[in-house]
Amino acid sequence: MTSSGTIAANEMVALAAILRERGYQFTTVTPATHGRVLNRAAGQTVPSLRDVFGWSKPFSAAQIDAAVLAQMRKAGVLRDDDGVLRSTVRASTIGQQLYFHSAYPTGDAESVFLGPDTYRFVRATGQVLDQLVLNPGFGVRRAADIGCGAGPGAIMLAKRFPEAEIYAIDINRRALALAEVNKRLAGAANVACVHSDMLSALEGEFDLIVSNPPYLLDPDQRAYRHGGGELGAGLSLRIVEAAIARLAPGGTLLLYTGVAIGNGEDPFLTRAGILLEAARMSWKYEEIDPDVFGEELETPAYADVDRIAAVLLMARKGGV
Questions:
Q1: Domains of the chain, with CATH numbers?
Q2: E strand or H helix that includes residue 33
Q3: What is the pLDDT of residues 203-261, one digit of tens each?
Q4: Can you tell me the distance from the alpha carbon of 93 to that of 186, in angstroms, rounded to the nearest whole number?
Q5: CA-to-CA distance for 184 and 273, rounded, in angstroms?
Q6: DSSP code for 280
Q7: Which distant-in-sequence residues (6+ apart) come within 8 Å of 105 by Cβ?
Q8: Which of 106, 52, 96 is nearest to 214 (CA)?
Q9: Which terminus of the chain is more exposed, N or C, with fewer CB under 10 A?
Q10: Cα separation, 12 vs 1, whole angstroms
Q11: Cis ω on the peptide bond leading into residue 249 (within 30° of 0)?
């Protein structure tokens, strides 16, 4: 990806083919863990494909396969600082599926993040859907992934519901460009990537809405991290409101998010519960992981927070 945020989609697909041919696999970790691993490996001099496309390490032209280097140039994902080269994207795998997203560190306001939350989100929502499809009458003709990022949620839906219309929605055009590439890599032709704030650019109702929104309080208010509102819950509550307004009768919301818990109280649960009860929605709420992004507790914004938990909210118009 160039500094302007543009990519050559066909060349990105060709780059992915090279990585696949060479058996590339990489699981992306949290930024804190990523930084620790880089500090530990500071003396390494012979980078592998995992170093280049996973760990975002610098390299020289002499240290990388000429075919890979040439394809990176064609795809527009090579940064050259006076001979010190870096990939401007990472390539991560979820199962056997490859996803391109932003290189480390993700400091830019339009960074496209994929990490441990993504793995938990895809796994948790996928498990729920595997159970829901066993229910008589459950079906998905139209679904949306709000805040799709690199597209794993939308692609997961496309694989499960190949006859459905799936919308990958984001306000970040760089995310949508990468989601477009990633859907091609997955063969998910029924995914449409749409630039939209929530569902404002789309009309009609949805049988299924999923989302893994930003939920932290980020001082720089970067879109991929900052949830806003009370302790980062603002965006998650907006998604609950959007689902209440736009789900079809019998439609389902699966919202994976993080909540800041202080003194044993979960303010997101309290406020979301009020909204859902007022709308006469049936819902369930589960902690997926009781302690994520613990390093955030060292910042002033979380001075009164005991922990940040990953949770899954399932809500339906008609019953759970």
A1: 9-102 (no CATH), 116-316 (3.40.50.150)
A2: helix 31-40
A3: 999 999 999 999 987 777 766 776 788 878 999 999 999 999 999 999 999 999 999 99
A4: 11
A5: 38
A6: T
A7: 31, 34, 35, 56
A8: 106
A9: C
A10: 9
A11: no
